[in-house]
Amino acid sequence: MPRLHIIRIAAVLVFFTCMQPAVVRGQDVLPPDSTLNFAVDVAQFRINDTLTLAEIYFAVPRSRLTFQPEGDSLEAGFEIEIGVHRDGEELVTEKWLSRTFAASGEDVRDSQTLFSLARFQFRAGTYVLLARVRDKNSTLSGQKLFPVDIQTFPSDSLAISSLEFASEIKKNQAQSVYTKNGYRIIPNPTALYGSGMPLLLFYAEIYNLSFPAQANYTTVCRVLDAAGKEVKRFGAKERRIAGRSLVEISGFNVLPLQSGSYVLELEVQDKHNGAVARQRKRFFIFRTQDQENLTAGKSESNRDYFVDALHYYYRDKSEDVLDEEFEAARWIATNKEIDIYSSLDVQGKRKFLANFWYEHDSDTTTVRNEFREDYLERVHYANSNFSGFKIGSKTDRGRILLMYGKPDEIDRFPSTANQRSYEIWNYYELEGGVIFVFVDIRGWGEYQLVHSTVRKELNDPEWQRWLSVQPVQPINR
């Protein structure tokens, strides 16, 4: 089937891209992993009875990009590729490059975010989007695979578009891809708010009000917590119906809400005919130093917030990324946990990892999971410094680093004509003081554990024999 015919069937007809050149200060940054993390979100708006406009928003952390000299300034860029699939068949793929400039490295900060936007027209149905983002000046990249259920908005009943969360909304008649109905709307694909972004703004379109009848309509906004309980309500606002389709711009301060996941609900009622429509969308509040007085310990009242925090973080992660993280965590997982994880689908794996790290968190009075952050930092160190024929986190030194933490002291002994190079790792507070001895037995830079004084670890009082360059039988593992 010709490619053009595929596009016509899918009704993927228009495509626009742009990068927001302004730098926007964002919410507290979550710990980065080894990939180029980016956020993506989708909002749907009515075109006609059979076509829906899907806007796809991207947010890329500016500080994760590699800046290189370009004239009198520094330049970085990221390439976005998005593919639309249905029933296992690729319908269309689009790719574009966005660039950003800085006067110096001091102008690039963790709180800055770059945005990009694409638009497609769809007919109703379920599609799968594959989004990739690649740093133009390095090998850093990331990808997300996610389904999108496209709905239509009929012309004979009250309806509300998707809620588009925004970091900035201003009246502006100048036309750009960020302009809709006289407003310039900078999206917030992360749906993440907090002390760095205390005002949640949103945009929505209301369809099929009973105009031209002389009547009013009301809007009410509610905030629901993770358990579905209403925790905040604002409105009801009553306005004159000025057309069949109208725009709703609103927002509220999130500072009274403690860290956790929430749902924003917008309700519209046509006072002329009594019709009611509702639209919901999840958002998240995260603060590095949460100001709420949370009860210490792993109480069920706090657990939901902390698990939701990580579950939110994993919501857009692909299964490959989830599997990579759990594979690195296998050294601290039980056999039962490994079996359970292997049996789950991608949604189950996201929830499992959130609970898994919560159970290992040493301080559940804070929203941050310091144990996870420290563990993944050690994974990154192991992969960067111990990798060779094996991934660093799977080597003996990587395993010990992940299971027991960073050693208090390392004694390094280079190779000589008659002796192999080796290292002795010292842990002064573990079991009253212990050591691990690693020897580069094969001379490939992969140090193998030959002796330890830790209970349940390999113990060989005659470990010095492994230092000899004479052939020795390899360790059985």
Task: List the SSEs and their pairings.
Elements: H1 3-10, E1 17-25, E2 39-46, E3 52-61, E4 68-70, E5 73-86, E6 89-102, E7 112-122, E8 125-135, E9 141-150, E10 159-160, E11 164-171, E12 179-180, E13 183-187, E14 192-193, E15 199-207, E16 216-224, E17 230-240, E18 246-253, E19 260-270, E20 276-285, H2 300-314, H3 319-328, H4 335-342, H5 346-360, H6 370-385, H7 396-404, E21 409-413, E22 422-427, E23 434-439, E24 448-452
Parallel strand pairs: 14-20
Antiparallel strand pairs: 1-7, 2-3, 3-7, 4-5, 5-6, 5-8, 8-9, 10-15, 11-13, 11-15, 12-13, 15-18, 16-17, 16-19, 19-20, 21-22, 22-23, 23-24
Task: Describe the protein in words.
It contains 7 helices and 24 strands. The chain has 477 residues and is of the alpha+beta class. It folds into 4 domains: 151 residues, Immunoglobulin-like (Sandwich); 138 residues, Immunoglobulin-like (Sandwich), CATH 2.60.40; 83 residues; 61 residues, no CATH class. Strand 5 and strand 6 form a beta hairpin. It is elongated and about 95 Å long. The N terminus is likely disordered.
Task: Give me the number of helical elements.
Answer: 7
- Radius of gyration equals 27 Å
Gross CATH architecture of the largest domain: Sandwich
Give the overall average pLDDT: 83
Q: CATH class of the largest domain, please?
A: Mainly Beta
Shape: elongated
Give the proportion of residues in helices: 10-25%
Number of domains: 4
Q: What's the assembly state of these chains?
A: single chain
Q: The CATH topology of the largest domain is what?
A: Immunoglobulin-like
Helix-and-strand structural type: alpha+beta
Number of strands: 24
